[in-house]
């Protein structure tokens, strides 16, 4: 069954179709009555083996706004903590006949593995350091709220690139549209293989160089939970890679600041930048619901056509 495992497998036309549909759902988010009945009678299970505030809530709200029922399970409260294997847990949930399972797992490739074993669509809500497809889609939607097109933009992605599924999915998505992407961070957190994805992807260790003339500055969290030995202390990190207001003068005058959240003020960015009028961090969160509605509708809706590449 066709779920959504990553941006890498999607065609540019599929990305455009989701963004188009998400744009249709955007105004609904601020209406007094927010519920449609497109997915009435459908059931979505959210299974999260890693911490999440935004993504899990957003998938649940998206399902409910489409009229579906949604159940969210976290690993700590499930039988996973009693030693059940991943396949057994998923098969147990699948036996209750949900229409899709949205999952987050610390192992890269976990949803891909399960998609091969289960006859139910799986939506990847973040797998290890690999992909986080709906995050890249909501990021693209947010950029398009501020720019007429993605083509020709310069996007700086700054921080712990090596451990970031957000960076990887964004590189895949933005490079399908010929965006100039500069990946910036300490050399040890900057995997050179990402430049192989597209000719427009370059690396920089100097934040000033990365930000120069950028249309979009996308900051990332330092994923300490995925590191044995952080290369810099919090203070050093902020000194070299923290985004401060004075950096903004190097970017385009109307450049926007993004962050997938959760943010660490004083580590990745200063509080002034986080609350700056061109910071769109909460707009990203808002767009997450519209994008996930578009994705869920495409996967489990009446005219579901899934994704061709799977
Ligand atoms: C990100 C994630 O989990 O990959 N958060 C999110 O989904 N908004 C980024 C992060 O945890 O730093």
What is the overall shape? globular
Main sheet specs: 5 strands, parallel
Strand order of the largest sheet: 7-6-5-8-9
Total helical elements: 10
Query: Could you name the CATH class of the largest domain?
Result: Alpha Beta
Radius of gyration: 19 Å
N- to C-terminal separation? 8 Å
Number of strands: 9
Mean pLDDT: 95
User: What ligands does this structure carry?
Assistant: N-carbamoyl-L-aspartate
Query: CATH homologous superfamily of the largest domain?
Result: Aspartate/ornithine carbamoyltransferase
CATH topology (level 3) name of the largest domain: Rossmann fold
Which residue ranges are poorly predicted, with pLDDT under 50 across at least 5 consecutive positions?
Answer: none
Q: What order do the helices and strands follow?
A: HEHEHEHEHEHEEHEHEHH
Strand fraction? 5-15%
- The level of helicity is 25-40%
Structural class: alpha/beta
For the record, the count of structural domains works out to: 2
> CATH architecture of the largest domain, please?
3-Layer(aba) Sandwich
Distinctive features:
alpha/beta; four-stranded parallel sheet; 15% strand
Break the fold down into its secondary structure elements and pairings:
Blueprint: H1 12-25, E1 43-48, H2 54-65, E2 69-74, H3 86-94, E3 100-105, H4 110-117, E4 122-127, H5 133-144, E5 154-158, H6 165-175, E6 180-184, E7 201-204, H7 207-211, E8 216-219, H8 234-241, E9 256-258, H9 271-274, H10 281-300
Parallel strand pairs: 1-2, 1-3, 3-4, 5-6, 5-8, 6-7, 8-9
């Amino acid at each position: 069954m066709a779920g959504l495992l990553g941006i890498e497998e999607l065609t540019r036309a599929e990305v455009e179709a989701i963004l188009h549909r998400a744009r249709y759902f955007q105004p609904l988010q601020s209406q007094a009555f927010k519920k449609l009945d497109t997915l009435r009678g459908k059931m979505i299970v959210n299974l999260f083996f890693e911490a999440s505030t935004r993504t899990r809530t957003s998938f649940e709200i998206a399902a409910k706004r489409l009229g579906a029922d949604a159940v969210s399970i976290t690993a700590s409260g499930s039988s996973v903590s009693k030693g059940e294997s991943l396949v057994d847990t998923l098969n147990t949930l699948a036996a209750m006949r949900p229409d899709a399972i949205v999952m987050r797992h610390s192992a890269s490739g976990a949803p891909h593995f399960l998609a091969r074993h289960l006859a139910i669509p799986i939506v990847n809500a973040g797998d290890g350091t690999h992909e986080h497809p709906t995050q890249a889609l909501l990021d693209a939607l947010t950029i398009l709220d501020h720019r007429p097109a993605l083509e020709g933009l310069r996007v700086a992605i700054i921080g712990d690139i090596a451990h970031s599924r957000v960076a990887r999915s964004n590189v895949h998505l933005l490079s399908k549209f010929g965006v100039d992407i500069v990946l910036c961070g300490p050399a040890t957190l900057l995997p050179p293989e990402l430049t192989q994805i597209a000719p427009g992807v370059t690396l920089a260790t100097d934040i000033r160089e990365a930000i120069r003339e950028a249309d979009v500055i996308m900051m990332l969290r330092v994923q300490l939970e995925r590191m044995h030995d952080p290369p810099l202390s919090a203070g050093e990190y902020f000194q070299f890679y923290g985004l401060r207001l004075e950096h903004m003068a190097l970017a385009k005058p109307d450049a926007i600041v993004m962050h997938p959240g959760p943010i660490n003020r004083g580590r990745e960015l200063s509080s002034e930048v986080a609350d700056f009028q061109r910071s769109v961090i909460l707009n990203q969160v808002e767009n997450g619901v519209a994008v996930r509605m578009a994705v869920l509708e495409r996967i489990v809706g009446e005219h579901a056509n899934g994704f061709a590449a799977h």
